[in-house]
Design goal:
The chain is of the alpha/beta class and 304 residues long. The protein contains 11 helices and 11 strands. Strands 6-7-10-9-8-11 form a 6-stranded antiparallel barrel. A 3-stranded parallel β-sheet has the order 1-2-3, with helices on one face. Strands 4-5 form a two-stranded parallel ribbon. Helix 7 runs antiparallel to helix 8.
Length: 304
């Protein structure tokens, strides 16, 4: 059993999962990954939870792709947070039953996070399970560790290349395509407007800063027939026009005007930031810039 939040399933998580997979195979055991939903801070200190790097569904898929035979989604509640460490181990690990438990060296559990890896090992000796407490993983000795906070900081700064290094994939927002103001269609650049659903993330989604990005719109992200379509992506408000000031994610799919995406769940992958958001003097100036954005999007995606 591997336990953690595993937000983003970044390279550090994948190294832990590889160790857990190896331990399971050596003992001819299945690997069950326990992850939490929503993020514990969403329950303990609502509003302080970190922006999430993947929806719950995407996280489960990534965990399965990287070694999990099964994923146990453990609902984090106030009641669970008040469970004493020994009782938490009894309910979560002993009743499973777990034979080997793999966690990061900073793993905490039980009421007021009183349990640590040393306590877990002690409880393991009492309850007949082994504990592997692994150090945080890094690209090289002395370099920064792979972590959700590092990936999150990169996304929030618009550094999509750094986010890709940590996540080993493009950062992806998921949401349902909704109706917008249809200004893009009137300007000759129809866009898919995405509404990332916080409930699907277990907290606010990690959204890049306002600007224009090169990337992909992903159709059927969790089903058969998945398609990645090259797109110019806008994040932010529409400062050239008067609007409600609400931040939006809009994707203009290159060379496709036949798509019918309303009410569909899609993914938006970010490859690189092209520019900051700018207020233009008029619609003509905006269209000229959009033409340049599309040209640069093609160039960036050919190199990515």
């Amino acid at each position: 059993m591997a336990i953690g939040v595993f937000d983003g399933v970044h390279l550090g998580h994948r190294a832990l999962l590889a160790t857990a997979r190896e331990a399971a195979d050596e003992r001819h055991l299945p690997l069950v990954v326990v992850t939490f939903h929503p993020h514990p801070l969403a329950i303990l200190r609502p509003g302080s939870e970190p922006a999430q790097l993947a929806t719950i569904r995407h996280r489960i898929e990534l965990l399965s792709q990287h070694g999990a035979d099964a994923v146990h989604l453990l609902e984090f509640t106030l009641e669970l947070s008040r469970t004493p460490p020994a009782e938490w181990v009894q309910q979560t690990l002993v009743e499973m039953p777990a034979r080997v438990v793999v966690v990061g060296e900073d793993f905490r559990f039980g009421h007021e996070a009183a349990g640590d890896v040393a306590m877990l090992r002690e409880l393991g000796r009492t309850n007949d399970f082994e504990v592997l407490g692994l150090p945080l993983f890094a690209e090289a000795e002395g370099s920064a560790t792979w972590s959700s906070s590092r990936a999150r900081a990169a996304v929030l700064a618009g550094d999509m290349a750094e986010a890709r290094r940590v996540l080993a994939r493009n950062h992806c927002l998921e949401g349902v395509v909704v109706h917008g103001e249809h200004r893009g269609r009137d300007l000759g650049y129809p866009t898919a407007n995405i509404n990332p659903l916080a409930a699907s993330y277990g907290g606010p989604p990690a959204m890049p800063p306002d600007g224009v990005y090169a990337g992909w719109l992903v159709m059927n992200p969790h089903g058969s027939g998945t398609k990645r379509l090259p797109s110019a992506i806008s994040v932010g408000t529409n400062p050239t026009f008067e609007d409600d000031g609400q931040r939006r994610v809009e994707a203009f799919v290159l060379d496709r005007h036949d798509l019918r995406l309303y009410d569909q769940l899609v993914g938006i992958e970010f490859a690189a930031k092209l520019r900051d958001q700018v207020a233009f003097a008029d619609a003509a100036a905006l269209v000229a810039q959009m033409e340049d954005d599309v040209t640069r999007t093609r160039q960036v995606l050919q190199q990515t």
